[in-house]
Amino acid sequence: MTSTKERSPGFVGARRTAELVGREEEMQRIAAILAASIEHPRVIAIDADGGIGKTRLLQAALTQAQMPAIHVATDLVDLYHAPTHTENGLADAIYQVLKPGEKRFANYWTERRLLARLRLTGEVAGVEEQRQKALKAFDLDMIALAQDRPIVLALDTAECFVYDRELRPESPRQIAQSFAWLCTRLPEWRNVVLLIAGRPASRVLYDRMEGYGLDVKRFTLSPLHGEKCVRYFSAVEALAREEGDLARADLIARLPNEDRLRAGRLAEGRPVLLALLVDLMTVASVSTINDLLDQVEQSTGGTDTGADVRHALETALIKRLKEATGRLGDTVEMLGRARKGVDKSLAAKLLEISEQEAFLRLGEAKRMSFVKVRPEDERVFLHDEMYD
């Protein structure tokens, strides 16, 4: 079996870590659903704990779906961002990833501009009416687009739609406004495949989608284990050589399979933690990695399973990264204090450096697998697993 290789537009660090390894079965299932000739909305609902690789899988699925006969979103819609929790905000996010233009979304383009003008003038009168007009126009354009060719969309971080997920994990009541709108609009748009992924709290959304009568195909994404962990490191090495990063490739190559398997066990097969190990190797050495793994096993009594071990590994990795020589440690620590992300201007203020220096530091941070970039404004922030 071969790995699926793709360029990831949102998760910038993934370009510098690995091909999509160990997800062949999931990709085949998604491909089969996309290939089915059924002109009604289909939902592919994925859940998994943080750091398992949901974002990478969605990105790979979008890449795999790219073909002339399908309208495929150019990027994920990340529900982590609050504007997507309103009807118009989610409509606009979908519009942005479907290659917007005056011709493709002629009705919505016009009504959206009028709504933006009203909001800029500060006039309250007429805003609600224009907001509804914009949504109606969006509906018309989506219906026309789906009649032409199937549409494939991908929504990430779905658990953010469930506001009281920690207070009422079994029966949450506070759901984002745009969720009900989406569930009622999908049957109107018809020929749409929606990929949606989130942590286990998202399951309540998938239950409700079924309650709306939607065709929901569900699966849970499993961690990487055994040989898949070995293949993960090998894929990183191959990509590093392909991109001319020979020093990094040589560092990875010197990590024996025994330690790769041990790292996989300690990380509970979470790709984000395996990627942290790889990224740490850019500022450390193989001996440092071995010392780190020994330290984690000693701190947990030599066990090699369980959440306590994984958390110990997370803590040790993040500590090592923050203590890294050079600028990287300071940048990571700064990003850890800015959960909503930073641009070069804010980074310059937080680090007390020039904007030019902040630009360079953020560029360095983007190479790391645990760093994400919001496409709309290029704000840089950490993978949510880093904040937990």
Write structural notes for this entry:
With 388 residues, the protein is α/β, with parallel strands linked by helices. It is 51% helix and 10% strand. Strands 1, 2, 3, 4, 5 and 6 form a six-stranded parallel beta sheet that branches. Strand 7 (371-374) and strand 8 form a beta hairpin. The model is unreliable at 1-18 (pLDDT under 50).
Write the layout of secondary structure elements.
Blueprint: H1 24-35, E1 42-47, H2 54-65, E2 71-72, E3 77-78, H3 87-97, H4 106-121, H5 127-148, E4 151-156, H6 177-189, E5 192-198, H7 203-211, E6 215-220, H8 227-242, H9 246-253, H10 257-266, H11 271-280, H12 286-299, H13 307-322, H14 328-337, H15 344-351, H16 355-365, E7 371-374, E8 379-382
Parallel strand pairs: 1-5, 1-6, 2-4, 3-4, 4-5
Antiparallel strand pairs: 7-8
Outline of this structure?
With 388 residues, this protein is α/β, with parallel strands linked by helices. The chain has helices at residues 24-35, 54-65, 87-97, 106-121, 127-148, 177-189, 203-211, 227-242, 246-253, 257-266, 271-280, 286-299, 307-322, 328-337, 344-351, 355-365, and strands at 42-47, 71-72, 77-78, 151-156, 192-198, 215-220, 371-374, 379-382.
Count of helical stretches: 16
Number of strands: 8
In quaternary terms, these chains amount to: single chain
What series of H and E elements makes up the topology?
HEHEEHHHEHEHEHHHHHHHHHEE
Helix content: 40-55%
- How much β-strand is present in the residues? 5-15%
The profile of the biggest β sheet is:
6 strands, parallel
Radius of gyration: 22 Å
Q: Characterize the overall form.
A: globular
Low-confidence stretches: 1-18
- Average per-residue pLDDT, rounded, comes to 83
Q: How far from one another are the termini? A: 34 Å
Structural class by SSE content: alpha/beta
